[in-house]
Amino acid sequence: MDVNSAFLNGVLEVEVYIQQPSGYEIKGHKDKMLKLKKALCGLKQVPRAWNSRIDKYFQENGFNKCPYEHALYIKIKDGDILIVCLYVDDLIFTGSNQSMFNEFKEVMTKEFEMTDMGLMTYYLGIEVKQQKDGIFISHESYAKEILKKFKMENRKLISTPTEYGIKMSKHEEGKSVDPTFFKSLVGSLRYLTCTRPDILHAVELVSRCIESPTTTHFKATKRIFRYLKCTIDFGLFYSVSNYYKLVGYSNSDWGGDIDDRRSTTGFVFFMGDIVNIWMSKKQTIVTLSTCEAEYVAATSYICHAIWLTNLLKEIGLIQKEPTKVCVDNKSAIALAKNPVFHDRSKHIDICYHYIRGCVARKDVQVEYVKSQDQVADIFTKPLTSEDFIRLRNLLGVTRSSLRGRVGS
Questions:
Q1: Residue range 363-401, pLDDT digits in tens
Q2: Rounded Cα distance, 366 and 368, in Å
Q3: Which pTM value belongs to this model?
Q4: Is residue 58 over pLDDT 60?
Q5: pLDDT confidence tier of residue 40, bands split at 50, 70 and 90
Q6: First to last CA, the chain
Q7: SS in 3 state form for the chain?
Q8: Which PANTHER family did the record assign (predicted)?
Q9: Average pLDDT score over residue span 39-48
Q10: pLDDT at 343
Q11: How far is CA 359 from CA 35, 70, 219, 321, in A?
């Protein structure tokens, strides 16, 4: 559902004055100002005023605001649940009872001027195909738009978004490229990573070079577009399942950035067999060993795991067992489980030892996984074509016609 003229529904909490509009001045009082009684579009206070208004309405009508995701509202009634996600003036809702949907639409339409958009098929550039056996999401139309916008639709196809083993520096040789154009290019690709985890690391690599891009960086970016053209209809399929146990993979590429020697953290969460959260990000510190880099990456993963576990609990998907994190470094696992390793870890900042408390409380369970089974590898380093496709299948990134996960 969409709220029509949402910002006009806000209630101003501060006094705001405006000049009299041209042509509507009051005779004899042209030197006076008008005091607003209601919000107007264009005021910097309006977004907050609208959000406060609808937040108050939700909480006065039986909804609980999720403390772990402030745009999420939950209503439980007679064992049924209604979940509403608010994005500015758009509402996405789902739940377990059709009558709750109808009631919700009726009361919202009475309170606000609303447009019922029906079953979600397109949202913020994301295409949604809802079927009996699951939901497929992709950015196919958006991908075609940016390929055309940047004149990349006729490029030669390629099977991976990055060249195997590439180490990219901010100071690569080549002629300078317009930074504004390059930022637009990379920014367009970043939005695609919402449904395309397979290109996340490649986009993250070129994002590091947006301040002073050269033709070498531009060539690496064009390769992502060539891969995108080859996989234009790829996306994620979320199948119907009652299995929602949370499992994750955490990995790092030690000293992978050749400019500052910082490592890259990569992790991914699966709920049952379905991927739902992924990240590739350069670490904020320089680590002294592979063990330490993996330890820092696992800590970042576990912070997200605790947040996600709490969020799932709010919507009734309680994780009864510790959240499993799979790491391919035995030293990092030992460091997380055994506080006796003092000499090896005393230089590590206290914030990264958060993982030890979580392991001790059995909030999470750290387990070893072989490197060839480490799904998070795809978020930390450029891979061979064979390894990349294998891990892409494990992530569940597939064509819309295949509708489902290829790997296991």
A1: 888 899 998 889 999 999 999 999 999 999 999 998 876
A2: 7
A3: 0.84
A4: yes
A5: confident
A6: 36
A7: CEECCHHHHCCCCCCCEECCCCCCCCCCCCCCCEECCCCCCCCCCHHHHHHHHHHHHHHHCCCEECCCCCCEEEEEECCEEEEEEEECCEEEEEECCHHHHHHHHHHHHHHCCEECCCCCCEECCEEEEEECCEEEEECHHHHHHHHHHCCCCCCCCCCCCCCCCCCCCCCCCCCECCHHHHHHHHHHHHHHCCCCHHHHHHHHHHHCCCCCCEHHHHHHHHHHHHHHHHCCCEEEEEECCCCCCEEEEEEEECCCCCCCCCCEEEEEEEECCEEEEEEEEECCCCCCCHHHHHHHHHHHHHHHHHHHHHHHHHCCCCCCCCEEEEECCHHHHHHHHCCCCHHHHCCCCHHHHHHHHHHHCCCEEEEECCHHHCHHHHHCCCCCHHHHHHHHHHHCEEECCCCCCCCC
A8: CYSTEINE-RICH RLK (RECEPTOR-LIKE PROTEIN KINASE) 8, GAG-POL-RELATED RETROTRANSPOSON
A9: 82
A10: 55
A11: 58, 28, 44, 12
The percent of residues in the chain predicted with pLDDT above 70, rounded, is: 94
Q: In the predicted model, is pLDDT for residue 345 greater than 70?
A: no
CA angle 299, 303, 307 (to 5 degrees): 160
Q: How far apart are CA 68 and CA 80, in angstroms?
A: 21
pLDDT in tens, 81-132: 999 999 988 899 999 989 999 999 999 988 888 888 889 999 888 999 998 8
Q: Which residues contact 247 (CB under 8 A, 6 or more apart)?
A: 269, 270, 323, 324, 326
pLDDT digits (tens, 9 = 90+) for 237-257: 998 888 888 999 999 999 888
Tokens read off for 324? 């499993």
Interhelix angle 179-192/215-230, rounded to 10 degrees, is 30
Contact 16, 126 (CB under 8 A): no
- The amino acid that residue 24 corresponds to is Y
Cβ(229)–Cβ(180) below 8 Å = no
Query: For residue 260, how far is the Cα from the chain centroid?
Result: 26
Distance CA 276, CA 396 (A): 10
CA dist., res. 69 & res. 29, Å (int): 49
User: What number is the average pLDDT over the span 1-10?
Assistant: 84
